[in-house]
Specification:
With 382 residues, the chain is α/β, with parallel strands linked by helices. It contains 14 helices and 13 strands. The chain folds into two domains: 2-174 and 350-381, Rossmann fold (3-Layer(aba) Sandwich), CATH 3.40.50.2000; 187-346, Glycogen Phosphorylase B (Rossmann fold, 3-Layer(aba) Sandwich), CATH 3.40.50. The chain starts with a strand and ends with a helix.
Length: 382
């Protein structure tokens, strides 16, 4: 099978990029002809190159909305797809999802769209949610199937009438196991809490720091890994709350397994999520998880069994849960072991890969006729 993956950005490595990288690599190793297309080259394209996966740059494909750039990106994508003639186009992220689906449809190539957490999910400010939902309803007819990474997102799509129920398929994210890695504690530093994720408005570092500021009477250290514009603000808050010496802002890290190995607790405090990879990676190595109950997080983390779930922005509850875990190593081990079992049941990479490949096979059976430029304009107007 010839597969083209289209994603907006290659200069960062968030959940959508990890998803595309790992799927494209696995499909390549399974004997399929794979090409990944994205905006300007960066960390994603470098990692694909290391794995032997071809990459095509579409410099005009950027996150910001710029009409002339959109046209340039669309024409470049269409030309690349016309040259490659893939059997299937798999699109990821909002911008690439729109342009990639339209280009594929005009060429008569079956396309899929994977939503890595909807841009109209709860927690995203209005009126953005309504605008994004409207845009997704317009784009939905261009895809054979829409994949959501959580049942939460599938239900949200149905609630917003994005497409017909039979067209929206839930396939949970899956991650590779990290060979030989077991969570361990560095006792002389006290229990370590790890959070990975971009420093942006999606992540709620403020609530996390406020909760931990109430626990200065017990030992703990916090490591925050990720890039993004909010790093300076987090450092400022840590100083203001009197916990700067315990909060370590690490920036972008490509050695997350090392960070997991020295952590005792994994946390993800967010305003919204799809099904976060960081949570699944933590579960895979037996770490208890403390996370905001947003998006599909509760489909992985079982409150009181594999970790704790906290209502969005609930500082007091978060502080109380951390205190319980920080003071009870046996509880941490028990929750982590249960999380590891849950990971093996549902969130291994091979499970996601097999379900996705089955859907690819089904989509390739669909016969599509190329549409004219006039018809394409009609798709935009609908």
């Amino acid at each position: 099978m010839r597969i083209a993956y289209v994603i907006t950005r290659a200069d960062e490595i968030g959940g959508a990029q990890v998803h595309v990288r790992d799927l494209a690599t696995a499909m390549h190793h399974a004997g399929h002809e794979v090409t990944v297309m994205a905006g300007c080259p960066g960390i994603l394209s470098a990692q694909l190159s290391e794995r032997g996966v071809p990459f095509k740059s579409v410099p005009a494909l950027v996150r910001e909305i710029r009409p002339w750039r959109e046209l340039e990106a669309f024409l470049r994508l269409k030309a690349l797809l016309a040259r490659l003639r893939p059997d299937l186009v798999s699109t990821h992220s909002s911008k690439a999802g729109w342009l990639g689906r339209l280009a594929a449809r005009m060429l008569g190539i079956p396309a899929l769209f994977t939503a890595h957490g909807w841009a109209f999910t709860e927690g995203v400010p209005e009126p953005e949610r309504g605008v994004y939902a409207f845009a997704e309803r317009l784009a939905a007819p261009l895809a054979e199937r829409i994949i959501t990474v959580s049942e939460y997102d599938r239900s949200l799509a149905l609630e917003r009438r994005i497409s017909q129920p039979e067209k929206i398929v839930r396939i949970h994210n899956g991650v590779h196991e990290i060979p030989g890695l077991k969570a361990r504690s560095i006792e002389d530093a006290g229990p370590r809490i790890l959070m990975t994720g971009r420093f942006s408005r999606q992540k709620d570092h403020s609530t996390l720091l406020r909760a931990l500021a109430g626990l200065r009477d017990i030992q703990w250290h916090l490591e925050l890994a990720g890039d993004g514009p909010g790093q300076a603000q987090v450092r400022t808050l840590a100083h203001r709350f009197g916990i700067a010496e315990r909060v370590h802002v690490l920036g972008m890290r490509l050695d997350v397994p090392v960070l997991l190995a020295r952590a005792d607790i994994y946390t993800l405090i967010s305003n919204w999520e799809g099904l976060p990879y960081g949570v699944l990676e933590a579960m895979s190595v037996g770490l208890p998880v403390v996370a905001s109950d947003v998006g599909g997080v509760s489909e992985a983390v079982s409150d009181g069994r594999t970790g704790f779930l906290i209502r969005r922005g609930d500082v007091e509850a978060l502080s109380a849960r951390f205190r319980t875990l920080l003071l009870n190593a046996e509880l941490r081990r028990g929750l982590g072991a249960a999380g590891r079992r849950r990971f093996c049941e549902e969130f291994r990479f091979d499970i996601m890969f097999n379900r996705t490949l089955t859907l690819y096979d089904e989509a390739c059976l669909t016969e599509r006729r190329p549409i004219s430029t006039a018809s394409a304009r009609a798709q935009y107007r609908r």
